[in-house]
Amino acid sequence: MAPSLLERIADPAYYKGKIADFQVSSSNYYTTQKILFTMAPSLLERIADPAYYKGKIADFQVSSSNYYKPLFRSGSVKPLWHLMAFTSVVMYTTNYIFLKGKCYTLLLNDMLLYSFMVKFDSDT
């Protein structure tokens, strides 16, 4: 029996030797280039590796330091605006998820139902 599409996609050997044709247009001519698909297996390996995330965090720290240090030194207001925007996004997202979202509504309904049942049981 032939492997399913999901099994073929999960297999790194599936991507080896795959060739995609695409055309690069110019005003006078069209050329066809061939590219080997070798990115997908390496992408899956990187996603599973904790060192990949540590490297990304280190790169983010360096780039943000290089961006914000001169702004702090010059007394710019831009870092404050970025901090306020980030705080607002976190605050409103958290508020929606935990106080107004579907999970909280279901929990509230369960609590109300339980309190009604307790009250009904105590009345009898």
Explain what you see.
With 124 residues, the protein is mainly α. It has five helices and two strands; from the N terminus they run αββαααα. The chain has helices at residues 5-10, 39-48, 50-74, 78-100, 102-123, and strands spanning 19-25, 30-36. The protein has a two-stranded antiparallel sheet. α4 runs parallel beside α5 (102-123). The longest helix has 25 residues, at 50-74. It is flat, with a radius of gyration of 27 Å.
Biggest sheet layout:
2 strands, antiparallel
Helix content: 55-70%
**Spatial separation of the terminal alpha carbons:** 65 Å
Structural class: mainly alpha
Oligomer: single chain
Q: Estimate the strand proportion.
A: 5-15%
Per DSSP E runs of 2 or more residues, the count of β-strands stands at 2
Overall pLDDT: 75
> What gyration radius follows from the Cα positions, in whole Å?
27 Å
Can you tag this structure with a few keywords?
mainly alpha, two-stranded antiparallel sheet
SSE topology sketch:
Blueprint: H1 5-10, E1 19-25, E2 30-36, H2 39-48, H3 50-74, H4 78-100, H5 102-123
Antiparallel strand pairs: 1-2
Task: Write a brief caption for the model.
This protein has 124 residues and is mostly helical.
